[in-house]
Amino acid sequence: MHPLDNVIWEALTTRQAEFAEGRGDARRIIPEVGALAGLREPDVEGYRSLCELVSPGGTARVWLSLVNRFESAPGFELVTTFPGLQMIYESGDAIGSSVHAATLPIEELGPRDSPEMVELATLTKPGPFERRTHELGKYIGIRLEGKLIAMAGERLKVPGYTEVSAVCTHPEHTGKGYARVLMWEIMRGIRDRGEIPFLHVRQSNTRAVQLYERMGYRTRMVVQFTVLRRK
Q: Closest by alpha carbon to 78, among 228, 184, 188, 190?
């Protein structure tokens, strides 16, 4: 099996096991770090194991990336599901030049920036983002007049691959190329480690998909993003 085929499970059982809570055939990221969960197999045993990791009732939700559309699972109810693309950057060319990178106020983000990162992610909805998500990898951002208006970073890591994630720009500052510049910077760091960048995106987000294709990404597979709540 390719390490990206079941990428959340793979990440939480290899390079990012330190961030995982596990029972049997299920793993989930520590809730303060993220909402992603992975199953060895999306079968009865896998969901039974996941039930032991998620408290019933309340507002806790887990995000899965499945090959097939979710039908049902004992102990869970479906919140939402939608198709996404897993895209990979395997270009043999050098990482594109960030023409404006030297002139932009790009900075590395950390714990002190967490509230602003969560606020920006909540506004723009690039995917689940919690107060400790930044611990999963390197995150960088752009500030204007002291306000964080764009960011990008690393999320899932499996042998040989690192995910580019949380790519977002405040709605008042879109169309200026900030996302592309930040992505190139993150991708350059990934390639410098001898790894291959990949990412996930909603299939319906045609603007983002077209941007990533222009940057050299290709679609590797279609996945079903699935958000579940414990009954």
A: 228
Look up residue 177 and give its DSSP letter. Answer: S
**Predicted confidence (pLDDT) per residue in 13-68, tens digit:** 999 999 999 999 999 999 999 999 999 999 999 999 999 999 887 777 999 999 99
Residue 12 contacts residue 29 (beta carbons within 8 Å): yes
CATH of domain 7-84+226-230: 3.40.630.30
- Using CA atoms, how far residue 109 sits from 51, 72, 151, 152, in Å, is 34, 39, 9, 10
CA dist., res. 42 & res. 26, Å (int): 9
Query: Do 153 and 129 contact (CB within 8 A), yes or no?
Result: no
pTM score, two decimals? 0.94
Task: Look up residue 140 and give its two tokens.
Answer: 């960088």
Q: 36 has which bridge partners?
A: 63
Q: Report yes or no: 47 and 73 within 8 Å, Cβ to Cβ.
A: yes
Start-end of CATH 3.40.630.30 domains in the chain: 7-84+226-230, 87-221
Q: Are 175 and 181 in contact (CB under 8 A)?
A: no
**Fold of the CATH domain 87-221:** Aminopeptidase (3.40.630)
CB contact set of 194 (below 8 Å; sequence gap of 6+): none
